[in-house]
Amino acid sequence: MTLCQLFLQPDAAYSCISELGELGIVQFRDLNPNVNSFQRKYVNEVRRCEEMERKLRFLETEIKKDELPIYDPEDNPDAPKPREMIDLEATFEKLDHELKEINTNADALLRNFNELTELKHNLTMTQGFFDDAEMAFTPAHNRNQRDSDDDQVQLLYEYSMISHNKLGFITGVVPRERMVAFERMLWRVCRGNVFLRQAEIPELIEDPVSGEKLHKTVFVVFFQGEQLKNRVQKICEGFRANIYPCPENPHERRELAMGVMTRLEDLTVVLSQTQDHRQRVLAATSRNLRTWQIKVKKIKAIYHTMNMFNNDVARKCLIAECWAPVSELDRIQLALRKGSEASGGGTVSSVLNRMVTREQPPTHHKLNKFTQGFQNLVDAYGVATYREINPMPFVLITFPFLFAVMFGDAGHGILVTIFALWMVLKERSLKDKWRNQEVWTIFFGGRYIILLMGIFSIYTGIIYNDVFSKSLNIFGSSWRVRFGDDTLAKHDSVILEPTPFNYTRSADYRQMFSGTPYPIGLDPVWQLADNKITYTNSVKMKFAIIIGITQMGFGLFLSLWNHLHFNHRHAIYLEFLPQIIFLACIFFYLIILIFYKWTSFDGSKATDAPSLLIHLINMILFSYKTDPPSAAVFYTGQKQFQTFLILLAVLCVPWMLLGKPVYRIIMNKRRANYSTVTNHAAGNDSDVEEQHQEEFHDPAEKRGVVLDADVRDTDTEDMLDDEHSHQQHHQHEVEMSEVWVEQGIHTIEYFLGCISHTASYLRLWALSLAHAQLSEVLWHMILHLGLSMNGYGGAIASFFVFMPWSSLTVFILLLMEGLSAFLHALRLHWVEFQSKFYKGEGYPFVPFSFRLLLDEAPVEA
């Protein structure tokens, strides 16, 4: 990475930045960190882009409301020219205004239509009320038995006739759920001096105000006097009832009803035409919406980037600083030249200069869709320091392998692999399908990680010979049962001897093991053995220790690579050597003992084999007892050799603790002596320099500063070096105290960490045991119930128990156990592996890229 300076002509800056955005290999720096966002040069252009984005969001909302498809562009559109921005604004303004006008008119028409619909139902049902009232006023000998409501209407009519006053009434529509409260309120406020008739509208009616479809009820309230009329009107307003006019004359009511029906028919035609026009506008917009959104995002990104530049008024240019890969400088120059030509802005081209800086560059990794997920796992711990070794290529293999060691089941691995292959093969169609679902985004982003985890799980499942908790006998077991029928009838279980002949037993024990191990993985005979867990625990525990120590040792050798690259020669002798010697003296030696025990003790000597755990404890305690067989030595001279290893390991502790601080003390003294000599020589030359100062007229020449950006300012850097050395000389005591504390913590952390980290790798064995036992429990407690039955009943039972077995397998073993194994594998890499060599104190390279911009802020499909 290199820091570059760009000199851009104002007219060509937009086109040049557009070309760099398409290239996506330049990270710009903000040269105006103290300037408010609202005070920058191109803030008005950014605001215009935000206004266009708001209008496009409104158009997209309307398109989705009508459930119209939004078409993606076939090609990636280029960023439009600055003058095209005015045309886009005019187009968006026209569509926004037209669509809002259509919506306003449609809402008004729909509100009028709903009001007329309610009025139609109101007139129809009110006419029924008055017809019932007229029947109630017929003579008693011409009518049948009347109910209480008819009697009440008759009484009110007679009272009104006596008092020479006519009854008044109000009709309207109220939501059905408010009708009970409405009726109770009328009765209480009017003290029973009103008469209410109601009828429910059978279909749903859209409310003219809220637009919701509700069940409504038509009502008629009869009253007498203006006071009661005012009370009834206020109650109707309080319950948000829609009051409609209703003539007293039946003929006028019929004419009003006919007029309402005619207006409803006309409004239906107008609403249909309005909706068709809206559909045509939205359909035409949906074809270009995605293209417009991409163009606006690119315009906004360009002006936002240009706000980070300095405006050099004297040189009439824009000055930008950016980080870029050295290998891509030619492509950047070509993009700048292309942008200048596209703008047509004169003969002055853009200038790119490399700068010399002491700032730490960003960390850039060349990745693809396969390695991106693994790099995200590493970056979650910390972004690599610039030029620090990247553990991603190693994590790409070790992470799925350690996961598979804990998840080892070929059947479960096949299911995981099928799921990952589906995501990989269908990634184009699945990419934007559920982008708003966070869980799905995590799974889809790690599809290649899941694929490798599934493949490695199949491999470890074959090694464990474990397929849904069952073993496969593909090549034939290496064990044979050589017992007679009498022996098998007398015992519930028998012991299979690994030796060809055991003299302490009868001849029935001959040749039970062929002497040739099973070709791949665990022998299937262990599936039937009572001591299966004892055997597999021993093997998996030792493999976990071997894998853990090997990975930690590999991490230390990667730290050696870092020391060599950064030229930290002292760290090789003062850190790497004591660390690797300590690890080798105890833990690498333990691995050698494991392999030595496996190769030196066969079945005939198995009972006399020493215990590795007791052996390691005795090695630390310098205790060498021969009384129990498990404490016997492996080889002659073992006591002297192990004593030497322990003493050498103990020597590594002060070596690492004192080495680096003593080295820093020596180097500080050398810098102090060098600074004293340099200052004395500079004092002798100052008098001579003062005599020649009058000959210089340029202040820059007096300072010895070279203004060319391509030339290194050596005088300034030497001055900074002297100042830094001077500060170190006066503050070395404080810094040395920090060095002592830091080195002490680092030493304690490493030597204790070697023990704790080795024990931490036993989680490989523990989770593998838990996964195998859970799988076996689900098989025997659920699926075995159906498989153990015979006949049609067994087939039916197997059909019913398969669903709970498969569901528990997916949710418990694949999801929960898979997540647990994933997190444990991640911890082993972050803490046990990467802590040996990886600092992760850098910051990522985030280039100005239109592709990344559109991927990070995807347009919802």
From TrEMBL:
Topological category with respect to the lipid bilayer: Multi-pass membrane protein
UniProt-recorded Gene Ontology molecular function terms: ATPase binding; proton-transporting ATPase activity, rotational mechanism
Localisation: Membrane
Compositional bias of kind Basic and acidic residues: 689-699
Cellular component per GO, a single term: plasma membrane
Keyword Transmembrane helix included in the entry's annotation: yes
Chain ranges passing through the membrane: 394-422, 442-464, 543-564, 576-596, 644-663
Superkingdom classification of source: Eukaryota
Keywords: Coiled coil, Hydrogen ion transport, Ion transport, Membrane, Transmembrane, Transmembrane helix, Transport
InterPro entries: V-ATPase_116kDa_su (IPR002490), V-type_ATPase_116kDa_su_euka (IPR026028)
UniProt record, GO biological process: vacuolar acidification
Region Disordered: start-end pairs: 680-699
Coiled-coil parts of chain: 35-119
Family indicated by similarity: Belongs to the V-ATPase 116 kDa subunit family.
Functional note: Essential component of the vacuolar proton pump (V-ATPase), a multimeric enzyme that catalyzes the translocation of protons across the membranes. Required for assembly and activity of the V-ATPase.
Protein name: V-type proton ATPase subunit a
Organism: Adineta steineri
